[in-house]
Specification:
It is elongated, with a radius of gyration of 61 Å. 23% of the residues are buried. It has three domains: 183 residues, no CATH class; 49 residues; 103 residues, Response regulator (Rossmann fold, 3-Layer(aba) Sandwich), CATH 3.40.50. The longest helix has 95 residues. It is mainly α and 422 residues long. The chain has a four-stranded parallel beta sheet with strand order 2-1-3-4, with helices on both faces.
Length: 422
């Protein structure tokens, strides 16, 4: 609990013995003047002046500006050894009155000022004349930082009477301007408080709208979570059915022997069927082009030779040519016609070589056969897709003569050889 300013504490501060009447120096407001009665002489030494060595007219502005109220109250409590219940003005007035002499409170204030404004004291230490002190003081006044500069300049050994009076006047006007600034700040603060109230009301409305939106969003999230749970349940049910079907499929595959081979063969059959359809379409297109070409040839020669009859001819006259031991490679065709192919080739002096087009013979042997052949007969109707493109690409790269035959008959082979002779 704070202690009141008793007569005993006041007497201790004023060097009055306990028990004496303490009305001689009470903790009251001293009379404060903004002028001094005499001018302080210019000191010749280098020692800075102490607080109790300053003119008394300087104590009021110095304590009021350079020591914050909470710091001053702390020092007074420390000097009295208890808590002071006086108001701020009474504490200030009492402290100002104690600055006139050296006592415990004045020594505490001296130490506090030295510690608090050590940087400013160090700056003013370089000043060697009153003019230099005045220039530093003006610099700090323009910067608005007068608390530490006022103490450093007043306690400076080169601070004379005129400078001290000018500094007090500057500080007096600075306080007036600061008061005006405080009033402007108060007006600005009131305007900001009013604006803050308006913004607070608007914020309340916005928060109310946000609350409604958040409630709606929460309801939407709950609904979506319910739908998500339902979808996950359906997905789990589907995964379960898929697992059961997979087990049934595995059991079925085990029960059916050679299922993989059958599936592979069926896939191969499907591929061959698709290839056959493509070749049949190509065959029909080539037949149409052949009929058109034959019709045009008949029209140019003036002969009446029906194209349909010419297309139905199965037998042709023997080829009038000789291959002179040339190797003729026949790729594809029917296995039952190989002997007929051989007879046709050997009848014209060639050496017969055969490759089934990748159905039974290895596709890697095809490249060696193509390299050894002088002439290639490709049976497009009975050859694998891979072998067909292999033969076509090889002959195109090497420039080797290649005849493509659609019908796997011996007569078609003879017609192919006839094309070579032409």
């Amino acid at each position: 609990m704070p202690l009141a300013l008793t007569n005993t504490a006041q007497a201790a501060m004023n060097n009055i013995a306990p028990g004496e009447h303490a009305t001689r120096r009470k903790w009251q407001t001293p009379e404060i003047h903004c002028h001094h009665d005499h001018v302080a002489p210019l000191r010749s030494g280098s020692r800075r002046r102490r607080l109790w060595e300053l003119e008394h007219v300087c104590h009021c502005p110095l304590i009021g500006v350079s020591l914050p109220m909470d710091t001053l109250r702390r020092l007074v409590n420390k000097a009295l050894g208890g808590g002071v219940v006086a108001n701020d003005y009474e504490v200030h007035a009492g402290a100002v009155s104690e600055c006139a002499r050296r006592c415990k409170l004045s020594e505490l204030m001296q130490a506090e000022l030295e510690a608090r404004y050590a940087r400013e004291v160090q700056v003013f230490r370089v000043a060697k004349s009153s003019l230099a002190v005045a220039e530093l003081w003006i610099k700090y006044v323009k910067a608005g930082d007068v608390a530490g500069a006022f103490w450093a300049a007043l306690s400076h050994p080169r601070c004379d009477g005129p400078l001290q009076e000018a500094m007090c006047q500057d500080l007096h006007m600075f306080q007036h301007q600061a008061g005006a600034g405080v009033r402007l700040e108060i007006a600005r603060f009131n305007a900001l408080a009013e604006e803050n109230a308006v913004l607070g009301r608007e914020l309340g409305k916005v928060q109310e709208r946000i609350t409604r939106v958040m409630a709606q969003k929460t309801a939407d999230i709950d609904r979506l979570n319910g739908e998500l749970v339902q979808v996950r349940t359906e997905a789990i049910a589907k995964d379960t059915r898929i697992a059961y079907l997979t087990q049934d499929l595995e059991a079925l595959q085990v029960s059916v022997p050679q299922l993989e081979d059958r599936q592979r063969l069926q896939k191969r059959v499907d591929q061959l069927t698709q290839r056959q359809q493509e070749l049949e379409a190509q065959n029909a297109e080539l037949r149409r082009k052949l009929a058109t070409a034959e019709r045009a040839a008949v029209e140019r020669s003036g002969l009446e030779w029906p194209v349909a009859e010419a297309a139905e001819l199965q037998d042709v006259h023997p080829v009038v040519m000789h291959l002179h031991e040339k190797v003729v490679l026949c790729v594809g065709g029917r296995s039952g016609n190989i002997s007929n192919y051989r007879d046709v080739v050997e009848r014209v002096g060639g050496r017969f070589s055969h490759h089934d087009g990748g159905i039974e013979d290895s596709a890697s042997v095809l490249d060696a056969n193509l390299a050894a052949a002088d002439l290639v007969i490709c049976q497009t109707g009975c050859i694998s897709h891979n072998a067909y493109w292999r033969v076509k690409d090889f002959c195109k790269r090497t420039g080797k003569r290649c005849v493509f035959v659609e019908n796997p008959s011996a007569s078609s082979l003879e017609r192919g050889l006839a094309q070579v002779s032409e």
